Every structure is written in structure tokens, then in C-alpha cells.
Amino acid sequence: MYRSLSPITSGQRLRGATRIRAGTADDIVDAAVGYDRVAGVYDDWHWQRFWVQNETPFVVAALNAFPPGPALDVGAGTGRYVRLLRELQHNAYGIDLSSQMLARASKSLGRLDGLAVADLRAMPFRASTFDLVTCCRVLSHVEELDSAFGEFRRVLRRGGRVVITDVDSRHDYDATRVPMADGNVYIKVHKHSICELTRSAVARGFRVLTNRTFYANELPWKPEPRAFPAIDVSGNRPLFWLLVLEL
Question: What DSSP state is assigned to residue 133?
Fold first, then answer.
């Protein structure tokens, strides 16, 4: 069912993916190093419940507007959105910088084919391959937005769409912090405003179909403030956003 659209190599890192030294538990590391280190606990991280309850329903609602076809999840992690895309009958592929996260994804999905260790700035697919790209909470780990949107444009067919979510740049955080048994792992982030993202997308030939920002007081699931102290429960500072683009 998931025939290869182009050569995909698992367990191999593409040129352009950078690494910061692994360091100790409280150093800030880049995404490839950080997510390799936290892969075993990532799905149990308390923020995952937040995203499952508060992000996923809106992403699924956006995806329901698309007919089944070739789809790519960028930053696939442990495979949750690849699974959702396949449940919606898309011929879904996934890429991620972290081989350990994709190893978890392959166990969850029951198969490794269709998954690739790759940098979104140099994706291992031919031009005009996909009808749909999803990219959830990934661009905050990417410094250069133009190169990301350039690759989205390259791999999408004309009329294709991109569904993007991310933590809002105004949310109170300086790194992605994942607790481990031996301390916290801090993963480097690059904060981009929604205005920056839309400007970069439009410059690459996309038009904006949906641009929605979410605040704490309008979430479907209200988290316990003591467990999520960075959340502005007053509703004055946004938490995350959803962007749907069409090429």
C-alpha cells in the first residue's frame, strides 16, 4: 500500500542536519539530540495530554476537508499524525530528525516503511509528490523559515495544502523542557511570530486559508494550572496557533 515514492533511508541523517554536543541533562541541545534522548518518555510527557486534547481535534477537523491522497507528516515524532492520516485513508509518510523517535513510531505503527530520518530543509522526495503536508509543533525548532516553506512548495502539487501548528511565540518558554529520571532535557527553540510565518509562506506562493490563535480560556480541555505553570490562564497571552495554507 505504501509504495516508495523516492529512495528513503532509515537510520541515516541527511546533510544539513546539525548537532549540538549532547552535554549534561540541563544543557540546551538541538532537536535531533534532544528528541533522541527523550524518545522513550515522550508519549508519557504531561504536555502530550495537553496536545492530544487541545490541538489534535482542530488538526483532525482541518484534515477532514481533504480527500485521501499522498500525504507527508513533517516532524513525525512517535507517529501520532502519521497514524491519523492513515486512518483517514491517506497514503501517509513521515520524516523526523530523530531516529529514536521514528523507532518508537515504527513500533506504534507496526511498520517502518514510509518513515525516514530527514531534515525538512532537504526532504528526500521528488517535486510535486504530495497533496497534503502536516507540520505540527516543528517550525519552532527551525531557524530558517524560508527554506522550510521552499521545501513545502517543492514537494507539494499545485493546489496542495499544508496544515501547521506551533507554540505561539508569546507563550512563556525559552526551550522545550522534557523531564527525565536524571534531570530535564532542554531542546533549543527559535520563536517565530505568526506574522513571520505567514509572510514567509506568502512569499513562497502560498495563500492563507485558516489562521487561528488559541488562548487558555477557549481550550476544549482545561489543564490543571499547577501542572502547567507556564500557561497564562487569564487568556491574555496565546498558547498556540493553527495555520492552513494552499499552494
Answer: E
Q: How many CB atoms lie within 10 A of CB 144?
A: 11
| Domain 31-246 annotated CATH 3.90.180.10 | no
Structure confidence at residue 110 (pLDDT) = 84
Exposed, middle or buried: residue 116 (CB in 10 Å: 0-12, 13-18, 19+)?
buried
Which residues sit opposite 213 in a β-bridge? 241
Q: What is the pLDDT of residues 11-21, one digit of tens each?
A: 333 233 333 33
Question: Quick check: helix, strand or coil at residue 23?
Answer: coil
How do 183-188 and 175-180 pair as beta strands?
antiparallel
Convert the pLDDT of each residue in 76-125 to its tens digit.
Answer: 999 999 999 999 999 999 999 999 999 999 998 986 789 999 999 999 99
Domain residue limits, the chain: 31-246
